[in-house]
Amino acid sequence: MHAIEKILARASGKTEVSAGEIVTAEVDVAEVNDLYLQVVQSFYELGGMKVKFPDRTTFVFDHYSPAPTIKAADNHRKMRQFCRTMGIDALFDIGKGVCHQVLIEHGYVSPGSLIVETDSHTTTLGALGAFGTGVGATDMALILRNGSLWFRVPEVMKIVIDGEPGPGVMAKDLILHIIGTLKQDCAIYKCVEFTGSTVSALPVEERLVLCNMSVEMGAKTAYIQPDEKTWDYLAQFGVRQARRIVTTDPDFRYQEEYHFDARTIGPSLALPGSVDNLAPVQEAEGIHVDQVFIGTCTGGRLNDIATAARILQGKKVAKGTRLVIIPASEEVFRQALARGYVQTLLDSGAVFSTPGCGPCLGAHEGVIASGETCLTTSSRNFPGRMGSNDARIYVVSPATAAASALTGTITDPRQALPS
Amino acid sequence: MKIQASTIYRFGNNIDTDQIYPGRYLELTDHAEIGRHAMEGADPDFPRRFRKGGIIVAGSNFGCGSSREHAVITLKNIGVSAVLAKSFARIFYRNCINLALPAVMIPELDSFGLQEGQLADLDLAEGILTSGDRTFRFVPLPRDILELIEKGGVFALYK
């Protein structure tokens, strides 16, 4: 069996499961975000009286945080009320950060766990050896009511990345290249496992980016086998034990396998409209940029902000370009402050906003106007995603974002790297 | 389960949930209100020109992107009777089953040559689509899923 099959087997009380099988699995950690008052509505519609496992249930206010409208404020109020009524203590209210990062930092994510959130980017957690997957509101209401949900055991696709990435190349460039090559529907309903010497060498924060964006290939979940780096990373959040140590059996057969050579991948971007519209950054150089956004569960971690600070240190954001930075969590914000990155970036002309999802989904804190061009370190550039349907969104790495903020045009980060 | 004389609305590949239901309306929670913005991200005119009971016919990976259940709620509440696509994104597909919106995966859908505005009859249990004098066959949804949809979705299991 594959490690993720072992996780589903354990959670469904079976000794063995295989791809295609439908199992009913008990969920170790459930998370509801503030897009989802519908969870509460569906819960009551399903005849829910009590949340089965209040201590395994978390709420994170991240998409509308702090509330930009009266309606959003009202949704928050009702969700707080629901948590009080149901005895759910783990309510991470406004400003704590994006749900996936918050769960990691508060010790909810350990290897071998089954974690379900009302957010498609829950695949992120696979970088820590957990089975993370997103669901809609009614599925989540069923989890709150029953403590479990049905899952189809996914096929596993293996992506091997070898070789040392060149200067200015981040995990974001690698995953944009992979999605652009395999296309955005290549992994529908599958688990995507990342492995290879490049993945082993990547810091955990960068591995999270790979798994985060696997949902943009259609993946149900993602996986990276935990190693010493994983444990060092988790230890800072007090996680020292796996729910159960799982490893893939040597005789496991992957459904598909793809190989990539990181040495051949340069700074990459997704051209407007679709995340698999792959192009080298060089090909788009010189295009004027109205707004640069560094943030989200994809590109708003400490490493991302540190990269931007290194590039913008002692320099100014170009006139005519706005740089909006939103740390992925309060913890990231505090560390960025402590290390001086926030000061550096403020001095360069950046604008900071409350930890959370920000303008990624076009809700608030920097939505873009008709005809504008935005560079974002988030994961999606669907038409209208960040505001006007007529805005152009390029998905880039934090290094490309910062280098482009400096010039006001799309810029290859290798030109801006401090020597 | 039969759907009759329904207008076909055509969409392409990778229609994501932001196109089905733009993020700027995500704070809405009233289902009738949510229904007023169906497909606005792909076609701002869709809510006005849509005729109740219509069938959406799309390419691959329909419903990709965000997990928002609003995407299914909006289609149901504007009156979409079924979505046919070459493939569906996973979360959207699960949401369709839960909320009783028939979402049928038909890999060979392109070969049917269905056009925008055509009328079609759909027999979901038998897997037959008829449009004009042409008849097409597809693998129907599993019977238990169809039954669940006929009963009104997952809520019916808990009544």
Summarize the structure in words.
The complex is a heterodimer of chains A (419) and B (159). The N and C termini of chain A lie far apart (47 Å). Chain A is 32% helix and 18% strand. The model of chain A has no long low-confidence stretch (mean pLDDT 97). Chain A has 15 helices and 18 strands. Chain A has helices at 3-11, 37-45, 70-86, 99-105, 137-146, 171-182, 197-201, 204-213, 228-235, 281-284, 296-299, 302-312, 330-338, 341-348, 398-407; strands at residues 22-26, 29-33, 57-60, 91-92, 114-117, 131-134, 148-152, 156-162, 191-195, 221-223, 256-261, 268-270, 278-280, 291-295, 322-326, 351-352, 373-376, 392-395. Chain A has a five-stranded parallel sheet with strand order 4-3-2-5-6, sandwiched between helices. The relative contact order of chain A is 0.14. In chain A, helix 6 links the parallel strand 8 and strand 9. With 419 residues, chain A is α/β, with parallel strands linked by helices. With 159 residues, chain B is of the alpha/beta class. Chain B has one domain: Alpha-Beta Barrel (Aconitase, domain 4), CATH 3.20.19.10. In chain B, 25% of the residues lie in helices and 21% in strands. Chain B has helices at residues 17-20, 31-34, 46-49, 70-78, 90-99, 143-151; strands at 2-10, 55-58, 82-85, 103-105, 119-123, 128-131, 134-137. Chain B has a seven-stranded mixed sheet with strand order 4-3-2-1-5-6-7. In chain B, strand 5 and strand 6 (128-131) form a beta hairpin. In chain B, helix 4 (70-78) crosses helix 5 (90-99). The mean pLDDT of chain B is 96. Classes of the chains: A alpha/beta (419), B alpha/beta (159). The interface between A and B is large, with 44 and 41 residues.
